Amino acid sequence: MTTLLDDLRALVGAAHVLVDGSGDALAGYERDWRKRYRGRSLCVVLPGTADEVAAVVRRCARADGVSIVPQGGNTGLVGGGVPDESGRQVVLSTRRLRSVRRVDADNQTITVEAGLALQEVQAAAAAAGLLFPLSLASEGSCTIGGNLATNAGGTQVLRFGNARELCLGLEVVTAQGELWSSLHGLRKDNTGYDLRDLFVGSEGTLGIITAVTMRLFPRPRAGVTAWASCSTLADAVALLRRLRAAFDAELVGCEAMNAASLSLVERHFETLRAPLPLADAAGAPLWSVLTELASPHDESALRERAEAALAASLAAGEAVDVAVAASQAQARALWQLREAIPLAQGVEGLNIKHDIGVPLSSLADFVAAADAALEAVVPGARHITFGHLGDGNLHYNLQAPAGACRL
Amino acid sequence: MTTLLDDLRALVGAAHVLVDGSGDALAGYERDWRKRYRGRSLCVVLPGTADEVAAVVRRCARADGVSIVPQGGNTGLVGGGVPDESGRQVVLSTRRLRSVRRVDADNQTITVEAGLALQEVQAAAAAAGLLFPLSLASEGSCTIGGNLATNAGGTQVLRFGNARELCLGLEVVTAQGELWSSLHGLRKDNTGYDLRDLFVGSEGTLGIITAVTMRLFPRPRAGVTAWASCSTLADAVALLRRLRAAFDAELVGCEAMNAASLSLVERHFETLRAPLPLADAAGAPLWSVLTELASPHDESALRERAEAALAASLAAGEAVDVAVAASQAQARALWQLREAIPLAQGVEGLNIKHDIGVPLSSLADFVAAADAALEAVVPGARHITFGHLGDGNLHYNLQAPAGACRL
């Protein structure tokens, strides 16, 4: 009787079954990006096709007490992609599923395999003159399959929605080892129950995504990036409301950051400096709002309208100071401030991450109440609060009190 | 032992349980809008609250061989909302579930009960200065619960998506008579499996939708409606591609109609006349494309850009003739032409309706192949082909050959 490992090697090729002794390679699959979770796998299997994924699932199902942990780019922050310590879990990595199967310009869709990095999907769309708008900090290494398995969000959800809303179809290997596909590229598909959305966000528990069909969009011709300081989070919400009414779908991103977040960035990255003061004249901390506009029309008109809307927000007292990036380099620098916050948190030391959704109308009240409640429990803990204001999706993170030792 | 009818009367009030002899009222629930399906119900129950719906479901579950047919505005075209002829089905109408529970302007959401007519949802959003963009011909009588149960589309799917994409949460009475709710208004909700989308489009088979939370949008400040004639459906697809690139999200609707569709309208409605000829100089039939643009900016700029894009489409040969509505009245008249097609089909006589989704890149080939195949089977049958070009969602209808008798 052959062993499970022998059979897996026969199915995907011996080079694509990693076990203890395969060298350093294994560690990258058994440990998460933050190095907070580390497990021990029975093996890591890297199938090259969806059929091989199905065969691996069927073979593992016949093995006693063996479970499968699907893994994409292994950029998750909550340990969902790494094995436990039992040594009885097979890590099934999608990294070899890397074909761009089709870019359909008329239908504005792209069909790719699950192991393609998000940035590679963006690049394939761009090569066809189109935009794939999903964008997040780990886009260089996270995979599109993982983005859908976790229903990832990112910085352009305000306009384009989460990964779920961008997805038109999936190819999935079910827990029974069957291949289920809905890669038809239809905008409207009312045939039977919506199984696609059941797999999206199910984190590999219902099946393993092997390929996806995603929506594409026209590439914008003009972009404007702006920064505003607000006295309160409620003022930031009022500013957002004004921008939505003024720009509708041209408002593609709106990020809020509290002063503590940006102070951390300035402390740890010498080249990154906020364009406006982080506190008002009286020393009270300010919220910063980073806004991204994109339009199919010309840039000068967009810039003019952005300046008019920001002037109106100053007059209304929603913002106390504003700045508009004068070049693409300045725009990139503003986004770097936002993107460097998690890195600065890591350098600073012990922290606890939360990714929360709150209705925008309750956001300011929530943060005030949660801050007060936490201060009562952990005096001196620093609130590193930032994220996607437009979606009510904040990273409500806690940093250990200054000077506290690492756990 | 009390009977089922007695118990239902006790649960919802005797006035809200209709049976044979309740007068004409019953017929409106037992027969569909097209009068093609007619059943006989055990009774029609009209609960006034979600709790009453749950109680009715639980009581019916205890009755032997009794099933429930949920019904909204009863505007469906496929018989899904009417009972069969067994006399053992309870029609559960949502027409008394009519509260607007909340309009949240900051969160841009509206929470309403399932029995509200689509037009009433639009009006409640408008009263708060916001837009609820779902729009279809039956909006005066179809209900929002039915829109979600069938994942309705409509004329603005191109920009805003189907009913599914507009929905953020549901309140549902499950088949077990339990109340399940996700009316939180969150843009991002990754808690557990996505049950919401399983209920959306399930046509009442998994549960009865009693309330919904839907996305709202800023009201556009400017609109432009245009009409174009194209020699082929492939040219119409090329025109759409140009318009998408030029206007992105400002392109909110794009409908295509073949010449036969509009000829029927002109034959049966004296006041409705297409703004451009339906055939070219050689007598070849033309496709008509109705385009709706909406912008948060000023109307003169939008009109200018629309005229420039249409001029470019003429130069490229995608369109052979174009017209831009000069007033809101003209714009409405153009949309009336589109909306009158199903009515004209009804007056003309026997017809078969299809509601199909095809990837845009295959649409022209599909219609050519299907037309040829049908002509071989039913010589002389008229192809009344029209619908939502932007979504690849066509009403591919057949009208009996001219002069054929009614079934």
Rounded to an integer, what's the Rg of chain A over CA atoms? 23 Å
Distance between the termini of chain A: 48 Å
Instruction: Note the main sheet of chain A.
Output: 8 strands, antiparallel
Helix and strand content put the structural class of chain A at alpha+beta
Report mean pLDDT of chain A, rounded to a whole number. Answer: 95
Most extensive chain-chain interface: A-B, 58 and 57 residues
Number of strands of chain A: 19
User: Number of helical segments of chain A?
Assistant: 13
Helix content of chain A: 25-40%
Please state the oligomeric state of the protein chains shown. Answer: homodimer
Low-pLDDT windows of residues of chain A: none
Tell me, briefly, the overall form of chain A: globular
What proportion strand of chain A? 15-25%
SSE topology sketch:
The structure is a homodimer of 407-residue chains.
Chain A: H1 4-12, E1 17-18, H2 27-30, E2 43-45, H3 50-62, E3 67-71, E4 89-93, E5 100-104, E6 109-113, H4 118-127, E7 130-131, H5 144-149, H6 157-160, H7 163-166, E8 167-174, E9 179-181, H8 196-199, E10 207-215, E11 217-218, E12 222-230, H9 233-247, E13 251-257, H10 259-268, E14 287-295, H11 299-315, E15 321-324, H12 328-348, E16 351-352, E17 355-357, H13 360-377, E18 382-388, E19 393-399
Parallel strand pairs in A: 2-4, 3-4
Antiparallel strand pairs in A: 1-2, 5-6, 6-10, 7-11, 8-9, 8-10, 12-14, 12-15, 13-14, 13-18, 16-19, 17-19, 18-19
